Amino acid sequence: MQKFQDNLNNAIRHLQIADHMTYVTYPLVNDRRLLLKIFEEIYDSIINLVTSIIDYETLSKDLNIAKNEQEKIKRFFEIYSVNYLTTEQIMKIKEIIQVNEKHKQSAVEFVRKDKIVIMLDDLKTYSIDIKAIKNYLLIAKEFLMRANIKLKSE
Fold first, then answer.
1. Dist. CA 106–CA 95, nearest whole Å
2. Which of 62-76, 79-93, 119-133 has the lowest mean pLDDT?
3. In the chain, N or C terminus with fewer CB closer than 10 Å?
């Protein structure tokens, strides 16, 4: 049960950091590269929350669901995501996970106007701006609130 609680606390901490960086630090320093750090904090929060939910379900039902992070994410979207999220939120969270994978694989990232552009090996680009970050942050907060309510009620 301790592992489940640790992951939940980490999710909350990452979300608080992302929120502070978005609404306090970013407007103050106005450095576009900070957008990537904020995005990574949001991603870490979501992954910790998914891991926490899977760990909770594993402990409460005596199941052996998944060992590594990829299996836990896959299992969450197969079984549990509809209990915690709307269809639109599921799509956005999948988008966050995919963008993070693209970022890890990318060779180049650069600032263009008010956006961070991630360039993949096949020269396709994906851009992140403050509006997208705020949207991702909102989705992550809603996910955390629903998960907290659901997990505390069981």
1. 16
2. 62-76
3. C
CA distance 43 to 128: 13
**Residues ≥6 apart with Cβ < 8 Å to 89:** 139, 142, 143
b or e along 79-113 (b: 16 or more beta carbons within 10 Å of the residue's beta carbon)?
Answer: ebbeebbeeebbebbeebbebbeebeebeebeeee
Is the pLDDT at 1 greater than 70? The verdict is: no
Amino acid identity, position 35? L
CB-CB contact of 64 with 58 (8 Å): yes
Q: Three-class SS of residue 126? A: strand
Judged by DSSP in three states, 1 sits in: coil
- How far is the first Cα of the chain from the last one, in angstroms, to the nearest whole number? 14
CA distance 39 to 56: 26
Domain boundaries along the sequence of the chain: 2-86+130-153
Crossing angle, helix 2-20 and helix 130-153, to 10 degrees? 150
